[in-house]
Fold each of these.
Amino acid sequence: MRIIVHNAKCQGHARCWAQAPDIFKLDDDGYILPGDIQVAEGEQLLASQGARSCPERALEVDRTSAARFGPAAMQPRTGEA
Amino acid sequence: MAINPVPDHVPPEMVRDFSLFTSPGMPPTPNGDPHAAVACAHDGPPIFYSPYNTQDGRGTWVITRAADQRKVLQDTETFSSHRSIFSSILGETWPTIPLELDPPAHGAFRSLLSPLLSPKRVTALEPAVRERAIALIDRITASATSCDVMKDFAFPFTVSIFLRFLGLPDQGLDTFVGWAKDLLHGDDVERPVAARKIVAFIDELATNRRKDPVDDLMTFIVQAQIEGRRLTDGEIRGIGVLVFVAGLDTVAAAIGFDLAYLARNLKDQELLRSEPDRILLATEELLRAYPPIQLIRVATKDIDFEGAPIRKGDYVSCATMIANRDPEEFESPNTVDLAREHNRHAAFGYGPHRCLGSHLARREIVIGLEEWLARIPTFRIKEGTAPITCGGHVFGIENLILDWS
């Protein structure tokens, strides 16, 4: 699972960070750091709760297979077509 | 007070008899529930025109859906925040800062002030906030089994914390609360008098801090630089007035409404008392159910918005208390569910003007409830008394006599 971060929409409510401070990192002003977030297997519930508490809808949960396995998994392995 | 006429471009069928100032439950009401009273806005169309919905008698479009309020408040190009709400009381037009500045001018001031009220900074303030709450409650329990929560706890607690932040002594507390009361709930004579006192006071404080700097907000502002220059006297005044007004009334009102709810709902009171870990999440639900603020924007151009012919200069109201009772956003919106999850409420607004003090406000409410519940046994509203609530520019609760004898 991956959290897509729409940085321009973040207004510093910090609700994601309040739910899951280890997953959602803030800058010194209290706004989310840029970049999508790859979520580890055991942290999916917490991450999804954090994302779903954003009043601005700045965080999007991506559960596609690409998101599940991460960008590395999408690279063809050596020897594969 | 003169009520402004409905503009010609507003279709008569879109006008609805509704006002946060005059509708049933909005004037001072014993045992009132103004938030529930305005939730009736959802019985009608998603957008309508209210002919009298500001302190100065102007009409506004009323946006009832949370999703539409989000659109309005995030679109600062179409919906300006420059309303001169404070200075217009004096017949002037200067903005409070950063609230009444639009991007991009807004950004530099917001960045200047954001670190002062960031989650990290607020965490550092927490011990002082808790100490203040405990001292006030201990003083109450030492001599009584009943008190007026607004007078004896909510106001002295929230106002003294913010006075310290601004750099003002506690001795001024009663005077400042009096000014805020006149400004926000007073009549046409009281409001300009209060506004003038506040401006004079902020100007004088700025002058003093320039001469004798100390470690406080006003000193920080008079020494700060924006884009390589010092702030002008007008900018300093705009910031000082906003911080002064924003901190005086809102958090105290929230704590009052929250404790009134718990006094009337003993199961929930018991739940939070026996499992204080729940207070953090419960506070979000209480912020959803009892937010104090209506946000107003001014259309910068003609736009047809979700079927409403909004024209340049029209006022557009995003009342947080209406968004927070939107059935399309919240399941059973009129039920207070202290365990509600994913609580994306609008108590602090949406968009770039999201309440700068929201993190401090949250901590004050959480700590206030934690310490109150830890120190006061089961409390009820004192028999024979009725808290007086009111709607308006800031929803409020004037008195709340609790009894735990």
Note: Chain B has a mean pLDDT of 95.
Amino acid sequence: MAKTAGGSGALESFSYDDAIVRLFATATILWALVATLVGVIVAVLLVMPSATEGVPYLTFARLRPLHTNAAIFAFAGNAIFAAVYYSTQRLCKARMWSDVLSRLHFWGWQLIIVLAAATIPFGITQSREYAELEWPIDLLIAVVWLFIFGGNFLMTLIKRRERHMYVALWFYIATIITVAVLHVFNNLCVPAGWFKGYSVYAGVQDAFMQWWYGHNAVAFFLTTPFLGLMYYFLPKAADRPVFSYRLSIIHFWSLVFIYIWAGPHHLHYTALPEWASTLGMLFSVMLWMPSWGGMINGLLTLRGAWHKVAADPVLKFFVVGVTFYGMATFEGPLLSVKSVNALSHYTDWTIAHVHSGALGWNGFMAFGMLYWLLPRIYQTKIWSDKLVSLHFWTGTIGILLYIIPIYAAGLMQGLMWRAMDETGNLMYPDFVETVQSIVVLWWLRVLGGLLYVAGVCMLCVNTLMTWFGRPSTYEVPVYTAAPLSKSYRDSKPETKDDEYKDVPMLDLGKGMSVWAKMGWHRRWERLPVTFTILVTIAVVSATLFELIPTFLIRSNVPTIATVEPYTPLELYGRHIYVSEGCYNCHSQMIRPMVAETKRYGEYSKPGEFVYDRPFQWGSRRIGPDLAREGGRQSSFWHWRHFENPEEVSPGSVMPSYRHLLDSELKFSAIAPHVKAAWHLGAPYSDDDLHNTEEVAYKQAERIAAEIVSQGGPANTMDRQAVALIAYLQRIGVDLFKTPEPENADAEGGEEAAAEADADVAEITAGAESATR
Amino acid sequence: MIRDLVSSLDYSVCAEIALALFVGTFALVFFAAFRLSNSATDRFASIPLSDQPEDPRSE
């Protein structure tokens, strides 16, 4: 940036940094291809579960998080950055503050993506949805996101040459702040090695934090930045200003204030306190209003320009993208209504909802932006307009072919799960039957996914060919402008302040009149640091109003005397369960509904999860719920099930986990897990803490003996499957244990024991009546 | 002392306070947005349409 003397102040010459936009645009396209390809692979694995048999790194449960992470953080993430770097510079009339930070951001983010791809398939995962990455990568994300990206962005705002911060910038500010807050607080953990951390939250509180994060990851990673993108690129492509700037302001503040509350709607009818779930539903329903306001604002920006839409594929992408935003944000509040959620939750309905947003809203807005950007950043015409059109139609048909069968699958399976005959028994007691009935719809999904990937391939070809047509050196326009003066006062409010000068009225009234002119709000909108603080207050205060009661009111998570920490072997078995990503297909949460208690047993209680770090309630049942799995099957049944699920459960879509039968169980690796759990408050005995290997080995020997006695192979005690079996046999059994009084001889010991027995009898009676 | 203070607080009103905060803020934002003059909103809305710095840059 060069400075030249000019008039009343020093004029500055500057140019926009489009090289960083080219980098992020290229990364967006490459990761779009990877994310959608992995998506098709996991869709194929559901209909052909044995396609990658024998390769533990390629199971559905390990690849599905890879797909979601690639789609959200690699594809959508890079699209956000391309949009932010292009639009921020132009909206601020300033180059990014630091080219070095821009490059560090780009390469740091790509490193994070590569590390994610290198760890998740190897079972290095927290198994918390969209927050799977382990703590060293989480630290890197915090640094790259907040300090490098956030710092560079904020400094650019401070050094801008446009007085007013356009609304798109507001959305970017909210994105940066909120994602940082969500990421940091959701991922607080105690390390148990370089590749493993235990969440500081457990059970109900972990679930609450995770879905506070999870839903807001959708809100502030997949919605607000894309709205910023919409408010910039849609007017650009249509060459007309946004329909209503007032509406955009209301849209922004409403989303920032409402979204943060909505997370608990992911936990309806679970062990989460009722008040939190209801609050989540209420705010989710309120989201309808601003979301549709935003959609209408986007679509009406094209008023009088619909003839352009017919001719311009970029606008077509935007129109369909904004329409899918409207659809998804209509359906989201609908799904948050408890009675609807009771049917939709754990089914493919949620998957269809997510994909209408991801493929339609995020995908098409990103594609529209890229097709608008490519000729500008490569300074040549797009290689083939026809191919852009073909991409649009292929993608649109692909989305419809994907979501319609999956909506049908979700509705069908949800209805089958709850269907009961006239005698009050489940009509489809065999879970596998409900899965088999939707497999044909899963095949259609594969077809839809393939069409969508075909569209992304067309984008890749078009980009490559356009890039070949670029000039040998890019032209870099240089602009000249003076910096903004530091002292600035509105001219209009000053003149209007005198409006009531000679009117006989109280000074208070005059003061109110000045205040109501909202000049103070206009000032806030010009002050990036103040604005950032205001957004932070909005997000944090809403969060605290939900968090404080959840964490401080003890009655939210009533403890159960018989619930004890997992033994060292069971804890390690749970680690294997988490590493394999079993939550991708199995829930551990029986809702208090007749159909569920009949199928799975007594409904889940908050106090049962106090040692569960992370919680594993899941969000999708491709296999049955496992909350009461303990003691349901023999240990040898589990052994055979891992070896070949089809053999003991015909029609199952679970792949073989034979590698657990072959892999050695390293007893020496168990101790760090026990120590981490102990640090977090699990009351382990000295023996558990100091003789961990021995304690675990003894339990493994007992399970190995059971397997032999049930007709299984000998010498299985040092196999990983044994640890997992130990965990599975423990899930959900503590509730029904008879508590042992601590001091039976002490005064009152007998009364305490009698009381405890009465409590258990009550719980057991409740369980029996629920399942009767 | 902090423990006594925290345990004596009644958190059950949190949801009601939160709702009141939201409604109040929403009303304020709505009011603020509609206090904007047409000329200001037109000017703000047209910011993305040009990459050129404009001078003078008011508001």
Note: Chain A touches chain B through 58 residues (CB under 8 Å).
